[in-house]
TrEMBL record:
It comes from Aurantimicrobium photophilum. This is Phosphoglycerate kinase. Pathway: Carbohydrate degradation; glycolysis; pyruvate from D-glyceraldehyde 3-phosphate: step 2/5. It catalyses: (2R)-3-phosphoglycerate + ATP = (2R)-3-phospho-glyceroyl phosphate + ADP. Keywords: ATP-binding, Cytoplasm, Glycolysis, Kinase, Nucleotide-binding, Transferase. The gene is pgk. ATP binds at residues 203, 299, 330, 356-359. Gene3D superfamilies: Phosphoglycerate kinase, N-terminal domain.
Length: 400
């Protein structure tokens, strides 16, 4: 169900589930991409004269208020981007929320405090979630679900609430699904997927689903050391998921059998420790312990030779999906691999998609502009689960 299925929303109280889960450093938003991505739907509703009530989570608080997880900075930023006042309720379903919503006039907007300050939002207990969803339902006449980044979660505002009031997907979800559909249905070849980030176990599902569909998988980031170790290489004190070694070996042989190339780094930036002041040196991937740091050295980025090879492969592709930074991009000495990948994606003659909160933040923090890429997805886990072919509860409940 799309926005238009809800009919005219003028004068109606419209609950909008957004994903305003933005990275914050000392209370300052470091990447407002998810707030900007929510603007088309919010503007469309405000232009119709709806009374807009924005709901979101931020971080993973433990079901109780915690100042560092307040949504207020996001509400302030939203007001700046919309160019109009945004009221902020200091609770989610309490007195402040009720009062704030009741004073909204047509074409006005409010943001509720972090949904996850209430245990009912993320509860595994259906009755507890349902009770919280019922309280949220009191605050609106309809629900527009537009938090693409959170549609893989079976949570009160994403799932249960959609069953209690008339509901439909917003414009961001429509856009995200259009692009992700292009990655799953007849993508133009060659199709290259670039995987990074720290946890192999998080990406296993997507690797097994992608193997039959892609031509090449480039592996970087912390997860690469499990791949290198699976090849028999020593990796020093780098991230390693020993319990995944056999699975990774299975992928490597499955890829060979299918004619899919899994390309691993040939060089790595090895550091004396994890930190901005670490000493570092480039080492061949098969000799990571042969540096001055020996077995205590840790790999924090792909090396320059690998960055170049990955970039060539990416630029020769017609479809590229990238999830997960190649190194610790927050530290300049370990950002070059991620930069090389991002730069190459901007030069793809075809569809380039950056997926995931970390990769999206990385490209913006490294100074790239959103319009240099085909699409920057607001979903990390959500886009991966979509590509894995999983049914996502927040979409299923809307009839998608
Ligand atoms: C994300 O950052 O991927 C989404 O906002 C979902 O957050 P979560 O992983 O804490 O549910």
């Amino acid at each position: 169900r799309t926005l238009s299925s809800l009919g005219s929303l003028a004068g109606k109280r419209v609950l909008v589930r957004c994903d305003l889960n933005v990275p914050l450093k000392d209370g300052v938003i470091t990447d407002d991409g998810r707030i900007r991505a929510s603007l088309p739907t919010l503007n469309a509703l405000l232009d119709q004269g709806a009374r807009v009530v924005v709901m979101s989570h931020l971080g993973r608080p433990d079901g109780a208020p915690e100042a560092k997880y307040s949504l207020e900075p996001a509400a302030i930023r939203l007001g700046e981007l919309l160019g109009k006042p945004v009221a902020f309720a200091t609770d989610t379903v309490g007195e402040s929320a009720t009062a704030t919503v009741s004073t909204l006039a047509d074409g006005q907007i409010a943001v509720l405090e972090n949904l996850r300050f209430n245990p009912g939002e993320t509860s595994k207990d259906e009755a507890e979630r349902g009770a919280f969803a019922a309280q949220l339902a009191e605050l609106g006449d309809v629900l527009v679900s537009d938090g693409f980044g959170v549609v893989h979660r079976k949570q009160a505002s994403v799932y249960d609430l959609a069953k209690l009031v008339p509901s439909a997907a917003g414009l961001l979800i429509e856009t995200e699904l259009d692009v992700l559909d292009r990655l799953t249905e007849n993508p133009e070849r060659p199709y290259t997927v670039v995987l990074g980030g720290s946890k192999v176990s998080d990406k296993l599902g997507v690797i097994s689903h992608l193997l039959p569909r892609v031509d090449t998988i480039l592996v970087g980031g912390g997860m690469v050391f499990t791949f290198l170790a699976a090849q028999g290489y020593k990796v020093g004190a780098s991230l390693l998921e020993v319990d995944q070694l056999d699975t990774v070996r299975g992928y490597i042989s499955d890829a060979e059998a299918r004619g899919v190339k899994i390309i691993l780094p040939t060089d790595i930036v090895m550091a004396s420790k994890f930190g901005a002041d670490a000493e570092h040196v480039v080492a061949p991937a098969d000799a990571l312990e042969d540096t001055a740091f020996g077995a205590t050295g840790m790999g924090l980025d792909i090396g320059p030779e690998t960055g170049k090879a990955f970039a060539e492969q990416i630029k020769a592709s017609k479809t590229v999906f990238w999830n997960g930074p190649a190194g610790v991009f927050e530290i300049p000495a370990f950002a070059e691999g991620t930069r090389a990948i991002a730069q190459a994606l901007t030069e793809v003659d075809g569809l380039s998609v950056v997926g995931g909160g970390d990769s999206a933040a990385a490209v913006r923090i490294l100074g790239f502009a959103d319009d240099q890429f085909g699409h920057i997805s607001t979903g990390g886990g959500a886009s991966l689960e979509f590509l894995e072919g999983k049914r996502l509860p927040g979409l299923e409940v809307l009839g998608w």
